[in-house]
Amino acid sequence: MGSCLSAQLKLQTSCHDGKVASATTPPRPLSQDDILRSTNLKSFSFNVLKTATRSFRPDSVLGEGGFGMVFKGWIDEQNVTAAKPGTRTVIAVKILNQNGLQGHREWLTEINYLGQLKHPNLVQLIGYCIEGDKRLLVYEFVSRGSLENHLFKRGCRPLSWSQRLKVALGAAKGLAYLHSPEANVIYRDFKCSNILIDYEYNAKLSDFGLAKDGPVDGKSHVTTRVMGTYGYAAPEYMASGHLSERNDIYSFGVVLLEILTGRPCIDKNRPSNEKKLVDFAKPYLTSRRILQIMDRRIDGQYASDVAMRVAALAKKCLAVRPKDRPTANELVEALEQLQEPQKGSCIRRK
């Protein structure tokens, strides 16, 4: 899961070209030096990060994405030096794969956004390393890993219903901040592998290599080359390249379906009519039909009326017309109401 959009979209796509065609986007630092100077991030040497991760040992690997491998390490933040395992600050280090799907442009984009945006539901970027052809990013360590792992990885403890609702709310809050006038960012790659979960099950959005400045001057969208993740990207964006905040809302709806059903958005191992989760699940998003496809691992944990309300919210997010989708703030409001102690009978299937 999580491959960049490719020829499957029947559009010219690129995972290395993130320029916005519109001339109306607000100014941001353009040069590498300007971007690096505009942040308060720490600059690490490669040797420090190599020591901090115990030479990027296989047993330090936390995961792998389009950017490259992610390793666990330990640093002394104050002195910008490596620390002994189990001491000081725990970090996650991404090291750019030169042959990967994302490159230097995305590395800089990540620094440009996370170096300036601060919110409890965004992962914290601590620093970076640039030496020769080496590109690394240093993040806070988020202990429970990704939502993707908890929903789909064998051997990973599945989230309870209440934990899923908490994660969904935290992710919505992160998205609402990005869409706010303060940040004015279109995420463009909202998916469960980019939602990290901390020890207390707070969600933190990560991976901003594909993010874009939002529209200004009353414009409804910016026009871009299509980039993102197949199965999560909104249909109008795939068809035209028109990018708006409501594209992120569509992706949020896909994640809600994954949370409800425990199924990934694309599953090639299922029958042809079930391979794409949105197409399969949409007919079930009305009234009690959603109960037929709920994740069996959370049987007995939810009230039927609450599950139906989450399904109805997902359906709104997946509306064909972008203007019919809720805003991120409306998502937060709806999900906050569902965090209250649930009333009604819980459903347990035989």
Write the SSE topology.
Blueprint: H1 32-37, E1 42-43, H2 46-52, E2 61-64, E3 68-76, E4 81-82, E5 89-96, H3 104-114, E6 125-131, E7 134-140, H4 147-152, H5 161-179, E8 185-186, E9 195-197, E10 203-205, E11 212-213, E12 222-223, H6 235-240, E13 242-243, H7 245-261, H8 277-281, H9 304-317, H10 328-337
Parallel strand pairs: 1-6
Antiparallel strand pairs: 2-3, 3-4, 3-5, 5-7, 6-7, 8-11, 9-10, 12-13
Helix pairs in contact: 5-7, 5-10, 7-9
Provide structural commentary.
This protein is α+β, with helices and mostly antiparallel strands. Mean pLDDT is 86; it is low at 1-29. The strands form four sheets. Strands 1, 2, 3, 4, 5, 6 and 7 form a seven-stranded mixed beta sheet that branches. A two-stranded antiparallel sheet has the order 8-11. A two-stranded antiparallel sheet has the order 9-10. The chain folds into two domains: 31-140, 2-Layer Sandwich (Phosphorylase Kinase, domain 1); 147-337, Transferase(Phosphotransferase) domain 1 (Transferase(Phosphotransferase), domain 1, Orthogonal Bundle), CATH 1.10.510.10. Helix 5 packs antiparallel against helix 7 (245-261), helix 5 (161-179) runs antiparallel to helix 10 (328-337) and helix 7 (245-261) packs antiparallel against helix 9. It contains ten helices and 13 strands.
